[in-house]
Every structure is written in C-alpha cells, then in structure tokens.
Amino acid sequence: MCGIFGAVSLDEGFNQKNFEKFVELTDLVSYRGPDAADYKSFNSHNKSIDRNSFNIFLGHRRLSIIDLSSEGNQPLFCDDCWIIFNGEIFNYIELREELKSKNHIFNTQTDTEVIIKIYKEYGEDGFNKLNGMWAFALYDVKNEKVILSRDRFSIKPLFLYQHSNKYFFASEIKQLLPLLSKIELQTDHFRIFLQQGLLDFDNYTLFKNIYRIPPKTNLIIDLKSKTTVENKYWDYSDQKIEGSDDEIFLKFRELFVDSVKIRLRSDVQVGSLLSGGLDSSSITFVALKFSGQLLQTFSVISNQKKFSEEKFIDIFTQNFKVSNKKILLDSDKLKDNLDKVIEHQDEPFNYFIPVAHFNLIKALNENSDIIVILNGQGGDETLMGYLRFYFFYWKTLLQEKKLLLLTKEIFSSLMHRTAILQFRLNAAKRYLPQKLMSKQNIFIKKGDLISVWKFNNLRDAQIKDIDYYSVPFLNRYEDRNSMAFSKEIRLPFLDHRLVDFLVNIQTDKKLRNGWSKYILRESFLELPKQIRWRKDKKGFILPESKWIKQDFKSSIIEKFSGKNLLSQFELIDSKKFLEYYNHYLNDDKSIHSTDISRIYIAEKWLEKYFG
C-alpha cells in the first residue's frame, strides 16, 4: 500500500527542474508511504537513467506490508522492467509457484516482483490472473512502453492528467493540481453530485482535465508509435450459476473463506474491525480460524446507546472467546475534522459518514499498532444487502407475473418485520425517477440526471451499484481516510471470484423470506443467531440532524445569506436554499439532513479549491 507519481513524455522530455518538481509531487502524499521513498527518471531513447534529460519519471512512497526488507523498495527493477505499485496482490504465493514452474527466478519475497513476472510470461492480459487491489505503472524498457493498470473494483486510486503529448499520473488528485495552468470546475458533474449525491461513477473528476483511470483496465502508452490504447483485462462472466441451496451455499462458503484467508497474508500486524454486524462478524469468524489469537479485533462504540452496537459485539466476542479492544467515540464529536477530511478526500462527499470514518481510523491509529485492517465494504452490494434491492425484486416478480412468490415474499417480510418495515425513502431517493422527485432540492439549478433507476434486471442493477453508483465512492473515502494514517484496508467481499459468483447466482439465494443476504446467513451457521438474523442495519448512525439543526446552523445561515461560491457558479439559488433549510428546521419530514449537509460540504469544498 503506497503512493505513486509518474510522468511520461512522447515528445520533448523533462529536465532537472522537472525532476525536482516530480519528487515534490511524489512526496506530497508521504503519509501513504512513510517507510521508504525513491525516484527514478529514464531516457527511453538511450535506455539510461538520467535526471537531466529524461522522458519517463517514476516516484514511489512505500508502506511496507509484504517483504519488509529494502529489497521490496520501489521503483523495483527486474527482467528489463521497472514498476511502481500501490496495493496488494493476495494470490502472489500461488502465482509465484506457477511462475517458478515456468523457470522464472525470483530475487525478492514481494508481490510486486510477481506482477513483472506475470507480465513477462503472459503480457498485459496476464493481469487478469491477479487477485487483489492495485494501481501500478510498469515501464517495459525493451519494448518502450508504459502500462498503467487499475484493479477491478476501484479499490486503489489512479488519476491521469494529459497535456499535449505528456501524461502525468498519481495516487491522489492533489498531486496533479500543481501541474494545471488553471484549476477549473467540471460543472456538469458537480451539478449531478448536488442533485443526486453521485460521484466517482465514471472517469471524470470534478476538476477539468483530471481523470480516473477506469477500473479493470490497462492504459498502454507506446513510446515508439506515440499512441495510447485502453484495454479491459477483465469483465463479469455471463454464465448463470444454478444448483441446489446446499451446493450454492457450500461454493459461496469456500470462496468467502479463501478470500479472507489470502487477505491475512502480511508481514505486519493484521486486525479486524468488528462492528457487530453480519458482514464484519463473518469476516472476523473466518479470520480467527486461520489466525487464532494472533488476530486483533477492534470495535468502535458510541457513548450514545441508540447509536451503539456493543450488545452484538459482546455476543460475538463472548461466543468465540476472542480478545477485543473497544474504542469509545463521542458521537457528537464525530463531525470534527471536517476540514481535514475535505483536504484528504480531494473531492466532496454526500454526508458526514466519511468524517466519522476518518475519526474512527484516527482513534484506531492512536489505540493500536495494527497496519492492516479487514473490513466488510462491498458486502451490501454483492449480497444485495441494501433494502432497495427487495423492492426491485418485488417489481421483477410482478413483471414476470410470479404472483404467488411475490405474495409469499411480502408476507414473509411483514411477518419477520424485515425489509418493508426498514425501508427509508432517503436511502432510495436517488433510485427514483426524476418525475417523482419534483419537490426534491428545488433550490438546485437543474441539469441532466444519471438514470440510476433504469436497469435491465436485478443482475444489472447489482453490477451498476458495484461498478458505478455505490462501491467506487465508498472505496474512495475509505482509501483516503485509511491512508491518511498509513493504514491498509482489505476487503474480502470484493474478491473478484466471489463478486462474479454472487452476481450470477439466482436472486432467491440472496433475497428470501423477507431477508437480505440470505446466502451469508445460511452459510455460516456457527455465528450466533442474534447476529445471523439481525433485523436492524445500523452502519454509521450519526446525530447528523442535530449537527445541521444546531451546531452548523449559524455557519449555514451565514454562508448562504451572503456571497457563496455555489451561487457564484450558478449552481444553486441561495434564497430558495435558505427557505428549504428553514422547512427542515421546522421538521419537514420530506427533507433529510443529507440534503442540507451535502450542500454545506460542497460549499466548503469549493472554498478550499476555488475561494
């Protein structure tokens, strides 16, 4: 887990002054890699390393996780290739044995070297063999090309700025901003964010001319032909997976167990964040099977009982006799560090959950020595845990005229008091057609919306959440927050084998009898029933309404009563927004706190970059 920066020129090269600037931009994210740093500049024409005249620069900040020796420092060289790499390849041990059988010789114990050997053996299509999270740049000296590659599910970030025939790439947007002649707002995308809370759903950022390298994609920069080619190295399989409950549940369990197992590979301390929910409990249960008492578990609890999941944490730890360290956070203070989070995130966010998450990682950093954290992100998308999926499911059953099954599902939900009674309009607002949102956010100057409510079938809806509407944003804020404290988060639910399996099994294996995540509940019978059959879904529950109505009230009124950047960019009508806010203060139930907090956070973000 690291921070990278690189530059490639297809025409006139760079000089010593550029080298010094590139070093600064690499070091701008030193928190991503505090353990080592190195910088290399290459002249591809004469195959030399040269700081005064070069056309390729590779800079790296290292957070040491696997092979802690200096042999693992980067840029790393072998077989006529250089690489800078941010992430982890979890199946590197199996790949190394496969490559040894093909007469490859290894000089390190790193997963980084495995990437180069895979490339040498199979070409860039070989990256399909990698199981992990990554963003890397590989310079093939002999063939004079640079390959940028990003993992399948947007776990690790990689941004690109192209100017003339020069390409600059980096782990974070802030590393590329100093290269722009002028910082400009991508207004259309910002308007989408303000209306729907959507960001990270395509290759555009909110800064003009800075783009995301697409996930599951290689960008190949050919120095000889002076061309670039974008190739997708992986996609979902189309084969429908069928079988009995026992067969499907067993296969799921095998895939999930192996996903957790290989994500325990580390030469530093690994810990599991145990929330008391189904996802984190399942991960921790499996991790304990392989790590035993070596696994540290941590739980964040609230000083306000209605926000705390301590009851379920205690049930798990007592049942499995596992040591656990509880970290008490003052729920009301989770809003603190808003400005720091805006700085680390580079782009705005919908609500205060990323700020709470930042404080969680901060507290974890202050109370433990763990570097690697297992987390359940992706479980709701891959297992259809979001309750909106149930309503999509019912709609599908109605369209297919499966009325008996539809009746059974609705009755079961009412009887078990699960999906239908937990549904919250705000959680599903973005999935409602525009005509049903006529009263929503009337203060925003309207623009085109993303039709997130349109999908061909449930599989399509699930994939869109994984690829565009949910997972990328969640991974973004987790990556920036964790790396701010030099921590690595690993996500077992986003193992590509598991994801592909889950999107291709029958819906009734994931949703059944009013229960979401049915396959997970039935595949780990060892978990306590109170956790397996939990009816509530807390996640991060924050006193956001109180903050918006009390703590930030004077700030909101002050900002939007006078000059503000959202109005100057003609994105909102401040007068209408204050009227809308006043309705919220008077308990208008159709308005949710996030409708206000998103605007407030957006204004503060604009102040930082355009004020």
Chain-wise SSE layout:
Elements (H helix, E strand, L loop, with lengths): L1 E8 L6 H12 L8 E8 L4 E2 L6 E7 L13 E3 L2 E9 L2 H9 L10 H12 L9 E9 L4 E6 L8 E5 L2 E5 L16 H10 L13 E3 L4 E6 L4 E6 L12 H18 L7 E4 L4 H14 L4 E7 L7 H11 L3 E6 L8 H8 L7 H15 L4 E3 L4 H4 L5 H12 L3 H14 L2 H4 L2 H4 L29 H12 L1 H13 L4 E3 L5 H9 L13 H6 L5 H4 L11 H8 L1 H9 L3 H4 L5 H12 L7 H18 L1
Parallel strand pairs: 14-15, 14-17, 15-16, 17-18
Antiparallel strand pairs: 1-4, 1-10, 2-3, 2-4, 5-6, 6-7, 7-8, 8-12, 9-10, 9-11, 12-13
Helix pairs in contact: 2-3, 5-17, 9-16, 20-21
Q: What is the averaged pLDDT score?
A: 92
Structural class: alpha+beta
- Percentage beta strand: 15-25%
Radius of gyration (CA) equals: 24 Å
The residue fraction in helices comes out at 25-40%
Oligomer: single chain
- Termini distance? 33 Å
How many strands, which pairing sense, and closed or not: the largest β-sheet? 7 strands, antiparallel
Instruction: Please give the CATH class of the largest domain.
Output: Alpha Beta
According to CATH, what is the topology of the largest domain? Glutamine Phosphoribosylpyrophosphate, subunit 1, domain 1
Shape: globular
Number of domains: 3
Q: Strand order, main sheet: write it out.
A: 3-2-4-1-10-9-11
The tally of beta strands, per DSSP, is 18
Second rung of CATH, namely the architecture of the largest domain: 4-Layer Sandwich
Any low-confidence stretches, pLDDT <50, length ≥5? Answer: 435-439
CATH H-tier superfamily of the largest domain: Aminohydrolase, N-terminal nucleophile (Ntn) domain
Q: Count of helices?
A: 24
